[in-house]
Design goal:
The structure holds 2 protein chains of 2 kinds. By secondary structure, chain A is mainly alpha-helical. Helix content of chain A is 82%, strand content 0%. In chain A, α4 packs across α5 and α5 packs across α7. The longest helix of chain A has 35 residues. In chain B, the strands form 2 sheets. A 6-stranded mixed sheet of chain B has the order 6-7-8-3-9-10, with helices on both faces. A 4-stranded antiparallel sheet of chain B has the order 2-1-4-5, covered by helices on one side. Chain B has 9 helices and 10 strands. Classes of the chains: A mainly alpha, B alpha/beta. Chains A and B meet through α6 and α7 of A and α2, β6, α3 and α5 of B.
Amino acid sequence: MGSFGKKVAKFWEMFYEHNGYTRVVTGLKNTLIIAVLGLFIGIIIGTVIAVVEVFPKRKRLPRILHGFCTFYVGLFRGTPIVVQLLVAYYVVLPLLGMNWPALNVCVLVFGLNSGAYVSEIMRSGILSVDPGQMEAGRALGLSYSVTMMKIVVPQAVKNILPTLGNELIALVKETSVVSFVGAADLYVAFNYIGTNSYEFMVPYLAMALIYVVVVMIIAFLVKIMERSLRKSDRSH
Amino acid sequence: MIEVIDLKKNFGDLEVLKGITTTINAGEKVAIIGPSGSGKSTFLRCLNLMEEPTSGSIIFEGVDIAGMNVNINIHRRKMGMVFQHFNLFNNKTVIDNIMLAPVHIKIQELRVKKVKNFFIKIGNLFRKNKKELYKIDTTPARIKQEARENALRLLKRIGLEDKANVYPSTLSGGQKQRIAIIRALAMNPKVMLFDEPTSALDPEMVGEVLDLIKQLASEGMTMVIVTHEMGFAREVATRILFMDEGRIVEENTPENLFSNPQNPRTREFLSKVL
C-alpha cells in the first residue's frame, strides 16, 4: 500500500503542482467538443440520409441520391475511425492543400463517421412513426419535406433518443484515438503526466475514472431529456 | 366540382379500380358504400391523390390534378380529409394541430411575396414603367394570431375549447376525430373527404362524430363519405354510390337505392347489412 501511496503522491505532484491539470481540462474539453459537435454534425447528416432512404424511389433523382447515400454509409461504416482520421489528416487535406488544426479535422471526421451510424438509427426511428402522420400532413397540403421535418422527425427523435445517447457515449470513448493525428484529448493529457512523473498506474486509473464519470453524466442527461420529451405521450 | 373520368388504379398486379367515372357537384353529399375490398377507400384516396391513379383523370376546379405537372399541395389545401384513425399529430397540442397547416402555408406565401417584391424592386431600378409590388398587408405574428382565434372558434363550436393545450394522447377517440374534422375545416376546404370516419370508434362515440358531420352537411359543405353506417348514409347523403370489385355498380338517391335496388349485387349487399 505504501508504494501505491507514493505513486499517488507523485501523480498529485505532477497533476497539481506542475499544472498537469490544465492539460487534463484542455483534454476533457477537446474530448467533449469532438464528441458533441461530432454528434451534432452526425445528426444532421444522418437525418438527411435517412430521409433520402425512406423517400419513395420511383423517380430518377431520389434513386441517384439513394445510391450515393448507400455508398457513403458503406464507406464510413466499413473503415475504422482511426483509418478515417489518418486518411483525412495525411491524405485528403494535403491533397486539397488545406492546413487545418487537428481538432477541426477530428470534429469533421467524427461527424462524418457518426452520420453513417445515425442515419440507420434515424431511419428506424422514422419507420417507427405511424405512416398516418405523414398522410395527415400531406392531406393538409403540406409538402413532403415540411411534414417530415415538423411532424415525423420530431416523433422519430423521441423514439430513438436512448439510442442517440448511446451514440454520444460511443463517440466520447472513441475520441481516445485522436492523438493519432496530434489532437490533445484526455489520453494525451494523462500520458503527459505519466511520462513526466515516470509513473503510469495512477494517471491511467484517473483517466478511466474520468471517462466513467463523463459517460454517467451523459446517460443521466439523456434520461432527463427523454422524460421531458415524453410529456406528449401521457396526461400531465 | 370534381369530375372523375375513367379512373383506374393498380397495386402491382392487383387491379383495384377498374374505370370509375362520376361527377361530384358543389353542395352534394355523396356516400360511398360497398363490401370491404371493393375499392371505396382507394377511390376516395385517389380524389386528393393520396394514392396516385394508374390512369384516368380527376378534374378539380378545371384542373386535371392526376396530370404530371400539377403541384398537388395547392389543390389538397382545398380538399379536407378525415381518416379512419384520426391521425392527429402526436407531437403537437390540439391547438397546434389545428393551426399548423394554415399558419405554415400563409407564412410561406408571405415569404414568397416578399422575395418577389425584392426582385421587382431591383428590376424597377432599370424599368421605365415601374412594375407594381405585391401588397403585403399582414405579418407572421398577425397570421398566427388570426389562426389561433379561428382554431379557438372551431374548438368552441365542438365544445372542446378546454382541450386546446393538451396532447392528443389524452383524448377519447370521439374527441380526436372531431378535432381531426375541424383541423381540416381550418383550411376552409371546398370539399371534405371522409374515409370511414367512425369505423375506429367505440360505439358510444359514433354519435358525436356523426352529429358534427351532419351539421357540416346542413351548412352546405360538399362531401364525399366512405362509410359503413347505412342509417347515416341514408340520412345525410344526397346520392349514394354502391361500389363492388373496383366499379360503381349502382348510384342513386338514398330513398331509391335503399328501397328499390336495381342491381342484384346491391340487393345482396343491402340484405346483409340492413
